[in-house]
């Protein structure tokens, strides 16, 4: 690979073998986000997002290389930003990236809290269901609490759920990231609400924040497994949570 598509390490690798970050920073303003610290930027600077320099030219080279090598690994958009943060409407990097993936037979997933902003590209995902996956992060059913922790431009939870349902109806594979988990009851409720149109749930926990100490992670892990198996839903428990079983 060149400098855009890369192999994640550590916890991130549980989500995808490959990833690409189209933007430098993110305007969603999630207070639980690890990315400002990981990229060594202040929260204020990180919120002033912009496309990475030369992103589309470099990504094209990566796609050509993957096609030449018949590399079938999945590329996740994105880890340290959101492909459908509000500035994507201005720059359109995500749509152009998806078009490259489609042309070069590169498997990919878009993981977003952008809600309806992602609808503009569902036509491209639906055109290549053999390559595409649509994923959303779901954290809260309580919108007041969501706004407390997602202070910027992230979409309301019902909007994210609506896009998952629409993507699934278009024949696009879907999955949900149930992470971070602040309130196990809300996470379990989100699974109940969405299991009929979500193909896979990836369930984690809350890390690095003091609220994590108030959760019985063993009980949550057991309840999540019982619920998911009772619903017949496919799931993956992240290592951080599995160790509590």
Summarize the structure.
The chain is of the alpha/beta class and 245 residues long. Helices cover 39% and strands 13% of the residues. Helix 3 runs parallel beside helix 5.
- What structural class should be given to the helix and strand makeup? alpha/beta
Q: Report strand %.
A: 5-15%
Total number of helical segments? Answer: 11
Spatial separation of the terminal alpha carbons: 37 Å
Low-confidence stretches: none
Order of helices and strands: EEHHEHEHHEHEHHEHEHEH
What's the β-strand tally?
9
Fraction of residues in helices?
25-40%
Trace the largest sheet across and list its strands.
1-4-5-6-7-8-9
Instruction: Indicate the overall shape.
Output: globular
Largest sheet: 7 strands, parallel
Rg, nearest Å: 17 Å
Arithmetic mean of pLDDT: 95
Describe this structure in words.
- This protein is an alpha/beta fold and 245 residues long.
- The chain contains 11 helices and 9 strands.
- The protein has helices at 35-38, 43-47, 55-69, 88-91, 93-103, 122-127, 143-149, 157-169, 184-194, 217-231, 239-242; strands at residues 18-19, 23-24, 50-51, 75-77, 108-112, 132-137, 173-178, 200-203, 235-237.
- Strand 5 (108-112), helix 6 and strand 6 (132-137) form a beta-alpha-beta unit.
- Helix 9 (184-194) runs parallel beside helix 10.
- It is globular, with a radius of gyration of 17 Å.
């Amino acid at each position: 690979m060149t400098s855009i598509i890369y192999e994640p390490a550590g916890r991130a690798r549980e989500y995808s073998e490959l990833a690409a970050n189209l933007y430098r920073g993110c305007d969603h303003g999630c207070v639980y986000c690890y990315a400002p610290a990981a990229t060594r930027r202040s929260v204020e600077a990180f919120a002033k997002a912009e496309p990475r320099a030369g992103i589309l030219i470099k990504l094209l080279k990566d796609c050509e290389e993957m096609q030449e090598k018949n590399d079938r690994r999945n590329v996740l958009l994105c880890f340290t930003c959101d492909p459908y943060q509000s500035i994507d409407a201005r720059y359109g990097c995500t749509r152009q990236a998806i078009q490259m993936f489609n042309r070069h037979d590169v498997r990919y997933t878009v993981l977003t809290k952008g809600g309806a902003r992602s609808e503009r590209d569902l036509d491209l995902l639906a055109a290549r269901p053999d390559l595409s996956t649509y994923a959303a992060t779901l954290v809260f059913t309580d919108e007041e609490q969501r706004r407390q922790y997602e202070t910027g431009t992230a979409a309301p939870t019902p909007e994210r759920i609506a896009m998952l349902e629409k993507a699934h109806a278009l024949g696009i594979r879907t999955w949900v990231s149930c992470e971070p988990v602040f309130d196990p009851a809300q996470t379990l409720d989100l699974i109940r609400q969405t299991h009929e149109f979500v193909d896979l749930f990836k369930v984690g926990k809350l890390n690095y924040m003091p609220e994590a100490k108030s959760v019985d992670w063993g009980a949550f892990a057991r309840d999540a497994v019982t619920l998911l198996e009772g619903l017949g839903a496919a799931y993956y428990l992240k290592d951080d949570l599995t160790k509590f079983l």
